[in-house]
Amino acid sequence: MHWTENELNILLIDNDEDDYILTSDLLADIEGVKFNLDWVESYEVGLEAIAKNRHDAYLIDYRLGRHNGLDLLSKAIKKGCQAPLILLTGQGGRQIDLAAMEAGAADYLVKANVSASLLERSIRYAIELKRSETELRKAQDELEQGIAERTAEISKTNEVLYDKIATLEQLEHEIQSSLERRSRQVQTSTEIAQKIATTPGLEDLFRRVVNLVQERFGYYHVHVYTLEDDQLVMQEGTGKAGQNMKEFEHKIPFSAEKSLVAQAAREKNPVLVSDVYREPHWLPNPLLPETKSEIAAPIKLGDEVLGVLDVQNDRVGSLKQEDQILLMGLCGQIAVAINNHRLEAKRKQAEEAQRKLIEELDAFAHTVGYNLRDPLDLIIGYTNLLKEQARLPEELHEYLNSIARNGQKMSNIIDELQLLAGVRKAEIELKPLNMARIVAEVQQRLAYLIADYQAKIIVSEYWPTAMGHKPWVEEVWANYLSNAIKYGGQPPLVQIGATAQSDDMIRFWVRDNGPGFTPEEQALLFTKFTELSHVRIKEYILGLSIVQRIVTRLGGQVSIESDGKPGQGSVFSFTLPGNYQTN
Questions:
Q1: Separation of alpha carbons 237 and 221, rounded Å
Q2: What is the pLDDT of residues 386-397, one digit of tens each?
Q3: CATH number for the domain that contains residue 460
Q4: What number of other Cβ atoms are within 10 A of residue 12's Cβ?
């Protein structure tokens, strides 16, 4: 479409040239807007012109030879027409009016009653309504896509986290089983591992590991490396030599040929050398001149190498297979500790990302609500303006009322979505509630609905004091009461009351005289807001989802009682803590 503030392109499809001349004259009388009116005479040519999508609105005569305007309406919409379609007829008739709206017409005008101002309002209203519908649909699609993408990201992160945790649990079990088969070394190793597990940070962990291993087993020197990209970085070492290497940020390339540490990391297996002077791959360290034997044990998590624990002794042949087994057991504990620290960091990042996501979704819901409210208020405003200023047939007034009611319903849905987002994060303090006053205020708030449906409301005089948050509880009553009026009997008969329970909770209830719900339908009523094929339940689902969220936050429960028999109605209820629970 090519709509601008001061110029509109209109196509008239009418086989009567006099109608074209009359319509052209009417549009020419309109001040402030230039209407470019094109005219075609037949059904076929009109359909071809609509398919080109060059006009902002289409005026279609009901009588088009062997076809009629309703046929053209249906065909154009099926072919994806994006601009509004307005039906013109020589005589007014409720049956044609209804058929036009069912076929997708944006408006229906009787030629004899058409004036320049009415024609202008009808065209403007139809274009604005179509544009608002398009914007609403686009916003909904963007919201759904954003939620789906964010949900997929969180789900993927959780899957990776669960896999890592499962791997850790498996490794811990294997290490524990292996340690139980050893004697003194097992006991000593377990003692060291327990101290490792209680170390809060990685830097303290590495320092405790090397010092405990050297102290308990009397080794000449112990140091630990972590694998960072393609470098083995020394994190901690014992004695003055270890302190010096740490200060100089000692590193060993992962690909180094003359290094037992690098060899253990590459092969992912421990390297035991009883006499280093006979080992061609050994690399002497001038800071450790007394080294005679060495074990380099990889710190692994599954098949992933996280680093290397290196032990050196000052006697040839003093390091044996049992030392290697001991160190591998310790490396498993170290790997678990390192990975736990990393997983904890990732968990905190994931929680922070999830918190930010929830805040973004809440902000997005509020933004969408505010962006939709202006065009929605404009639709309702135009509708009321037509009702007040246009001399329209009674039938059209009924449709304008329907548009206004549906617009108000959309506004209520926006309010409910924003309330749902707010309930999630709001911090509230429970206070005693004057429930009789709250119920009275809700009745006043729904006075228009009570009058429209000619509902009779019977309110109990017994209202025990409960604890809650007044604005939220008012929304619960408004939802229950409006549902009872809209979906109850004809006319609606609604009873409202309260009952004190033996569990120190107060039960508040709303009884209607509607058709009731089957057990299968009841199971769906308080579910989370999802896409349901059950048309009747969809009318309830969003509001009741909010009700459940509110009542749960207030420490209560929601329920429904119904036999599913027409006329016997349903009882919707919710519970809140009694005032005496705070004493």
A1: 8
A2: 767 666 677 666
A3: 3.30.565.10
A4: 24
Q: What is the 3-state secondary structure (H, E, C) of 177-203?
A: HHHCCCCHHHHHHHHHHHHHHCCCCHH
451 vs 47, 258, 540, CA distance in Å?
A: 45, 92, 21
In a domain, 223, yes or no: yes
Residue 436 lies in a domain: yes
Is residue 145 in a domain? Answer: no
* Domain match, 105 and 180 both: no
CATH number, residue 84: 3.40.50.2300
Structural domain of 576: 426-582
pLDDT averaged over every residue in the chain: 82
Q: What is the pTM of this model?
A: 0.38
Number of domains in the chain: 3
d(CA 128, CA 375) in angstroms, rounded, equals 8
CA dist., res. 370 & res. 189, Å (int): 63
Span 442-454, pLDDT tens digits: 999 899 889 989 9
294 confidence band (pLDDT: 50, 70, 90): very high
174 — pLDDT class (breaks 50, 70, 90): low
Per DSSP, the residues of 488-534 read S-SS-EEEEEEEE-TTSEEEEEEE--S----HHHHHHHTS-S---S-
DSSP state of 578: B
